Amino acid sequence: MMDNNERILLAAKDLFFKFGLKNVTMDDISRELGMSKKTLYENYQNKKDIVETITQRFLDRHHQEYENMASQAVDAVDEVVRLMDKFSMLFEKMHPRIIFDMQRYYPESWQMFKDYKLNFVLLKIRENLDKGIIQGLYRANIDPEVISRLHLEQIQIAIDPLILPPEQFGMKHIHRQLLLQYLYGISTVKGHILINQYLDFNDISYKIDL
Fold first, then answer.
1. Which stretches of 50-120 are assigned E, i.e. beta strand?
2. Which residue in 10, 78, 100, 168 could disulfide with 74, CB within 3.0 to 4.6 Å?
3. Whole-angstrom distance, CA of residue 124 vs CA of residue 128
4. Is 20 left (phi over 0), alpha (psi -120 to 50) or beta?
5. What's the pLDDT band for 91 if we cut at 50, 70, 90?
6. Is 74 helix (H, G, I), strand (E, B) or coil?
């Protein structure tokens, strides 16, 4: 049976994903669980405490899932396509303002994301680029150190609601466009062929003809 700590985190995460961080209160979490506020506060001091705990768990899970996904990928292109599919499912469930809320109201949690981005995501982008060049799927004349850092900043731009309002474009659509633009841009003709094979082109608008 799930203990109160786990019940609180699960209920809070569901509410955050549905309504965003700012719009959910401790009263909302208590009411959703049918739990007294006294019991809620015995487990977590405040909403900030809950947000930080969920954030750390999310990053830990992402780390493990990324490593598993990378180990299962056939090649460098397959790894990026699998990543795109994974994030597409995530963004379908996530409230479009959750990133903005974290940046503005929960700077400690946002710092966790930034540290993770620089300490893990950048490394994985660089490793994927090196792998793709060796496999002949990415262009040999790209500079992996430069491209990895540029792509990391592209990801930052893509989640900036002032540049690309998620209510207008949709986070899933933005992320897919970013990864397709990045992947096609760095790939060789051999890589392009694999991209077209790996992706589901029921929506033919995504396909680039060779």
1. none
2. 78
3. 6
4. left
5. low
6. coil
What is the set of domains in the chain, with CATH numbers?
Answer: 1-44 (1.10.10.60), 47-206 (1.10.357.10)
What is d(CA 156, CA 25) in angstroms, rounded to the nearest whole number?
A: 27
Q: Which residue is it, tokens 């396909």?
A: 207
Structure-token match 């592209």, residue found? 154
Burial 136-154 (b: 16+ CB within 10 A, else e): ebbbeebebeebbeebeee
Task: Render pLDDT for 101-134 as a digit per residue (tens, 0 to 9).
Answer: 999 999 999 999 999 999 999 999 999 999 999 9
Task: Look up residue 25 and give its DSSP letter.
Answer: -
Name which of 98, 82, 84 is nearest 17 in CA terms: 98
Distance CA 37, CA 210 (A): 60
pLDDT of residue 205: 41
Which pLDDT tens digit goes with each residue over 130-183?
Answer: 999 999 999 999 999 999 999 999 888 887 878 888 778 887 888 889 889 999
Span 32-57, average pLDDT: 95
CB 61 within 8 A of CB 120: no
Give 187's strand partners. 138
Residue with tokens 């598993």: 68
pLDDT band at 204 (very low <50, low <70, confident <90, very high): very low
- Residue entry with tokens 């998620």: 166
Please answer whether residues 47 and 128 qualify as being in contact, where contact means their C-beta atoms are separated by less than 8 angstroms: no
